[in-house]
Design brief:
Elements (H helix, E strand, L loop, with lengths): L3 H15 L10 E5 L8 H14 L4 E5 L10 E2 L7 H4 L1 H6 L5 E3 L3 H10 L4 E5 L11 E7 L19 H4 L5 E5 L4 H9 L3 E9 L1 H7 L3 E6 L4 H10 L3 E7 L8 H13 L3 E5 H6 L8 E4 L1 E5 L2 H12 L1
Parallel strand pairs: 1-5, 1-6, 2-4, 2-5, 6-7, 7-8, 9-10, 9-11, 11-12
Antiparallel strand pairs: 3-4, 8-13
Length: 309
């Protein structure tokens, strides 16, 4: 209640920004965002859709703000040359699937991608960014967390009042089981709901099963990684959660390594966290990649096809 006045001010500023008109480009723009701050699973959704677009014979390019990077300006991401400190952790994962451009100025990034030959753009985040007019917008929702307490930051997790965000999207991607109340609300708003799950890489999962693990994660909701490991049948000796986009230091890794040694266990983390580890501190640490799988792939394919024409 004490934070409600600050929330009202923050929400008003965002809503005023949302009313700006974006630049219309000559290619489709697909935006994958969320209504809340962090931890929903946007990046796996972007990766999944980018693969779908490539399978259709298109040339997607991915646009990201590069949250947490220390650099400025426009950068085309090179996973071999760049570090998470330079471009952000998520763009390093995105660049393995399609050309990825990092910039605070989304229009500049879009123009660079078009000049390089892209014929469809996918924005990782940017639902509340009005720089570009969108052809298709999807909000990713964690089925467990939903919309939290329904309040705008800092009183809650919402980036703007829901009533002002619903018109921004064509549908929701519900990640995980549950979230029936959100699904009903989306249906009442006339929005398409796409169910999806995060599935760990089968080869790495098989390697980890039966082994004692010390797991750690610095994502929006670290407990999601713990749940993924447990659902995969892994044995967890210890778990350490860090803040979202935590910059791991050599001291952090030394502490984790000492814990794993004491527990006679294997260190394991998410792909995003692995990308943020200092390059010389990655020994003995395994990353468990996850893929987003749509429950009804034909449904998302049809939605994309209808918008791309």
């Amino acid at each position: 209640m004490l934070l409600r006045p600050a929330s009202a001010l923050y929400g008003a500023i965002v809503v005023r920004r949302l009313r700006r008109t974006g630049v219309h480009l000559d290619v489709p723009v697909i935006c994958i965002g969320n209504f809340t701050a962090g931890g929903t699973g946007k990046t796996p959704v972007v990766l999944s859709i980018a693969r779908m677009l490539r399978e259709r014979g298109l040339r997607p390019a991915l646009l990201s703000r590069g949250f947490g990077r220390v650099g400025h300006g426009l950068v085309k991401v090179d996973p071999v040359r760049h570090s998470a400190l330079e471009v952000g952790d998520e763009p390093l994962l995105l660049a393995d699937v399609a050309p990825t451009y990092v910039a605070a100025d989304r229009l500049a990034a879009a123009r660079a991608a078009l000049a390089a030959g892209a014929n469809v753009l996918v924005m990782d985040d940017g639902l509340q960014n009005p720089a570009l007019a969108k052809t298709l917008s999807l909000a990713v929702v964690d089925a467990v967390a939903g919309f939290g307490n329904g309040c705008v930051m800092p009183a809650g997790p919402l980036r703007a009042p829901l009533v002002d965000q619903w018109p921004l999207v064509d549908g929701l991607v519900m990640v995980g089981a549950g979230g029936d109340a959100v699904v009903r609300t989306a249906a009442a708003q006339g929005k398409t709901v796409l169910r999806a799950t995060l599935q760990p890489d089968a080869t790495i999962r098989a390697h980890l099963q039966g082994r004692s693990l010390v797991a750690f994660a610095g994502i929006g909701r670290p407990e999601k990684f713990l749940a993924t490991l447990r659902e995969a049948g892994c044995t967890i000796a210890a778990f350490r959660g860090f803040g979202d986009h935590h910059r791991f230091s050599a001291r952090d890794v030394a502490g984790l390594r000492a814990l794993a040694l004491a527990q006679n266990s294997q260190l394991v983390t998410t792909s995003k966290d692995y990308a943020r580890l200092p390059a010389d501190e990655r020994r003995d640490v395994m990353a468990l990649p996850v893929d987003l799988v749509f429950s009804e792939p034909d449904k998302i394919d049809a939605l994309i096809a209808s918008r791309l024409g």
